[in-house]
Every structure is written in C-alpha cells, then in structure tokens.
Amino acid sequence: MRERELRVLMKDLGLNEYEVRAYLTLIKRGALTAGELAALSKVPQPRIYDVIQSLMTKGFVTTSGSRPKKVIPVEPARVLDAMKEKYERRISIVRDELEKLYTPVEETGTVLVVKSKITLEDYIRKAIKNARLHLSIAAPLSLIEKFEDELRKKQKPEIHIFAYGNGNVPKVGRTVKIREVSDPLIVIQDRELGIYAPYDALTTSGSSLYGYALIIEDQNLLFMFDRYFYHVLWPTGKTVYHEERRLELPKEYLRIRELVEDIKKFNLVGYKVEVLGKFVKTRRTAHLTGRIAGFFESEGKVISNITIETPDGERYVVGGWNSSLEDVEAERIILRGR
Predict the structure, then answer these.
(1) Pairing between β-strand 238-242 and β-strand 251-253 as defined by DSSP bridges
(2) Cβ proximity of 223 and 310 under 8 Å
(3) Cα–Cα distance for residue pair 166/158, rounded to 1 Å
(4) Which of the chain's ends, N or C, has fewer CB atoms near its CB within 10 Å?
(5) Which pLDDT does position 176 carry in this prediction?
(6) CATH number at residue 297
C-alpha cells in the first residue's frame, strides 16, 4: 500500500493531517524530542505541542521521563486494538439504546406492526396530509391537540373527531365529539389507510409504545374499524362542535350516509348523481349516471342507500362500503345538481 493511501485510512480513523505526519515520523524514526519531531514531520513548531497532546489523548504516543523529554510512539497493533475495542463498546451501547427508542416496522401482508410512538405519529401525520374526502380520528385529547395545526389546514375532507378526555377540543373537524372514558386510537383515512392502537399503548412516557400499533391497508379490516368507529364509538360521544355548511356542487361523497343526510336536509330527490363502484353480484365495475329517485336509512343508520334512475329508465339501489343487499356498492358518488 502506498503511503498516501495509508494516510487517507489513518484520517478515516479520526486523525488530522498533522497527527498523521507526526505519528508516521515517530514509527519510522523512533523516539524524538518535540523540536526534532516538528522539523522531521514538517508540523509547524507552534502546533507541535498541541499535536503531541492530542496523540497522547488518542493513545498513539507517550513521553519519556528523561531529559530532554522525548515523544515515544506506541506500537501500532496496541493502538489499533485499543481503538477497535473502544469503538465496538460504543457501537454496542448505541445499538442497545437505539433499539429501546425505535423498533423496526414488521410487515405482515397489508398490516404493519409498529412499536414506536415516533413511527405511529408519522403515520397519523401521513393520514391527515393525504386525506382527500374523509378522515375519522378517535384519540386522546392531547393527541388531537398535537395535530391541531395540521388538521386545521385541511378544508376539503369531511373530518370527524372523537376525543377522549376532559377539556376544550379544538374545532378542527366538521363534527367534534368528546367522551371522558378512553378507548382505542383509531384513524381512518378515506378507504386507503387505517391506524389502530390499544389505549394502553399510548400511556408510556418514553418513545416506545406499550405493546403495539397497527397500520392497516386491508379493505376488510378498514371496513371493520370504520363500523366500530361509527356504530360503537360515535353514538357514545357528546357533540361539542358541528359546522353547518352550504351545499356546494358538484360534491363528492365517500360515505353514502353523508349523502343521505344531505338528501334529507336539502331535499335532493331528483338531483343528478354519478356513481362509481361495483355491481354487488358480479363484482364488475359499475359506472352509472342518473337521478336520485329515493333513499332509505334504517334505525341507527346501520343501513343507508339511495335509489337512482338512469336515463333509460333502469333503477338501481346503491349502497355504501361492503354493500351486500343493494345492487351496487358505491366507492364514490358525485352529486351534480338538478
């Protein structure tokens, strides 16, 4: 190996240019006085004592007790073995501490298991950012407050907030509810991303969750959590804010329940709609246009659907997510106008 390449490698070990010059000179020439070392290594005289002190601290040299005092190089193998041991010890400590702070994401199909609060909050932030039509969040009040600014910037999506705790909930959704008793963290963004964490998972003071959180991209699981949110949690909360909005057309709906509410409120029977989804029996793609001929909503809003009449006189009953009794499962419905 050329000496130039050796010098580069020594710098990679943490030595600067002057320290490399001094140590190489010493192992070639043996013990030298400070003056001799400065002259032979071409380290500036005003810097030589700082360089010697630094090399002593790093374990590369020692000094004699005789007069004149000489700088003695430590055997290279001893120096490098000591450095290796020190770095391996530091790497081991850092690795152990990092593992406590962050556990890598484990992927199982379309469900990710995470054990870090940092990772969980990153996914919540992602859900808020990417929400296009609908966002449902059930979370401790402190977590709602943490994302208040990001939620407030979202204007278009229909946002429903369900807070656990006591206090003033930020008015950052179309409808905001609160309940003192805590339940799981649930976030549902459109029909694309779901987040679930047992309430206990959030109770730790450190960066790690107590247990786990799930990041869900499976449609069947998302549907189950959506049902839990709206049929188990939502009715038990106290409404503390509800924003009344004007009907602005065209309007796109991800949830048929919200369309039915608008039909009742704004008397929309007869209005034109465009339905994109699937035929329930064949699972073929459905793309229908027509007028709203009627609607249905069961007690407790468990079942909601609309009937549309196409220009050729055909009628179809259109349901929402995972419809099984209707003709069409709507993925999106666009209300066009009269």
Answers:
(1) unpaired
(2) no
(3) 24
(4) N
(5) 97
(6) 2.30.30.690
pLDDT tier at 103, thresholds 50, 70, 90: low
Query: Given its phi and psi angles, is residue 90 left (phi above 0), alpha (psi -120 to 50 degrees) or beta?
Result: alpha
The number of folded domains in the chain is 3
Average pLDDT, rounded, for the chain? 92
Alpha carbons 166 and 240: distance in angstroms, whole number: 12
| CA gap 199, 176 in Å, rounded | 19
What length is written for the chain?
A: 338
Domain that holds residue 276: 251-337
Amino acid, res. 62: T
Rounded distance, CA 130 to CA 122, Å? Answer: 12
- CATH code for the domain of 26: 1.10.10.10
Q: Do residues 16 and 73 share a domain?
A: yes
Read off the pLDDT of residues 28-66 as tens digits, 9 standing for 90 and up. Answer: 999 999 999 999 999 999 999 999 999 999 999 999 888
Alpha-carbon distance 164 to 166, whole Å?
Answer: 7
184's tokens: 């799981």
Q: Given this model, what pLDDT does residue 105 score?
A: 54
Percent of the chain topping pLDDT 90:
75
pLDDT of residue 338: 87
